Amino acid sequence: MPTRFDTQTGHDRHGFYPQAETVEDFQRNLAAVQARIAAACLRSGRDRSTVRLLPVSKTKPESSLRLAYAAGCRYLGENKVQEAFSKWQGMQDLTDLHWSVIGHLQTNKAKVVARFASEFQALDSLRLAEALERRLQTEGRGLDVFVQVNTSGEASKYGLSPEEVPAFVSKLSAYPALRVRGLMTLALFSAEAERVRQCFILLRTLRDQLRQSAPASIGLDELSMGMSGDFEIAIEEGATVVRVGQAIFGARVLPDSHYWPSEPGSGGGSSARPLN
Ligand SMILES: *Cc1c(COP(=O)(O)O)cnc(C)c1O
């Protein structure tokens, strides 16, 4: 079915974004991303205040994160908990800087997240919910969480299948330290905008269905979807959080297979992932 928009993905730029090396670079990149967010909101009839930009700083050194902070960033997203934790330790002087862990978490690392993160976007098992709850109770903290959904159907992606989500979400009210905010997804990594858009539509539709069935304590306002290559399409389909790394910080040196399980046979040797 054709959609109202013909927005293309920027996945062909993946791996080619220039490095941000000064506060001015960060200011310029942030302003450019903000302008694109505003334009996407305008054409889809959405209020700009309903979309939050989460800058993603994974692989970048502390010096680079400090420049982003100086340019105004107060929330940073990191994919790997150990990397996030050591950055947090090194930047304790920035008391109003908050951390969002957006990548898959092993149950035995729950205690690390419970210590320092403000938000966790990749909840995908009850064992993990249980472990987080226990550690959060010990720490006397709460944590904003998003349930990660695999909307692309790729076996290599983390997250629950859409069919699993209703039963999963209905069990989360047993964990009061976890403040459920909504759903998160990574779309298909493809230059075919229409297939990418279908992933976002699926997440929104699922959220709308859950609103009929989920316990009242479960928040379902948030849809975290969209990254450098596809955040405008995500906004057109209802994203309330977009997670943008390279368009703000510059391309990453480490291949993305370091962060996402690679496709079988893809090798994972280059920073530009193969397009589907
Ligand atoms: C790295 C990452 C992003 C941001 O990707 P960019 O291409 O740098 O914008 C978004 N979400 C998750 C889960 C990530 O790991």
TrEMBL record:
<dbReference type="InterPro" id="IPR011078">
    <property type="entry name" value="PyrdxlP_homeostasis"/>
</dbReference>
<dbReference type="GO" id="GO:0030170">
    <property type="term" value="F:pyridoxal phosphate binding"/>
</dbReference>
<protein>
    <recommendedName>
        <fullName>Pyridoxal phosphate homeostasis protein</fullName>
    </recommendedName>
</protein>
<feature type="domain" description="Alanine racemase N-terminal">
    <location>
        <begin position="30"/>
        <end position="252"/>
    </location>
</feature>
<dbReference type="InterPro" id="IPR001608">
    <property type="entry name" value="Ala_racemase_N"/>
</dbReference>
<comment type="function">
    <text>Pyridoxal 5'-phosphate (PLP)-binding protein, which is involved in PLP homeostasis.</text>
</comment>
<dbReference type="Pfam" id="PF01168">
    <property type="entry name" value="Ala_racemase_N"/>
</dbReference>
<dbReference type="InterPro" id="IPR029066">
    <property type="entry name" value="PLP-binding_barrel"/>
</dbReference>
<keyword id="KW-0663">Pyridoxal phosphate</keyword>
<feature type="modified residue" description="N6-(pyridoxal phosphate)lysine">
    <location>
        <position position="58"/>
    </location>
</feature>
<comment type="similarity">
    <text>Belongs to the pyridoxal phosphate-binding protein YggS/PROSC family.</text>
</comment>
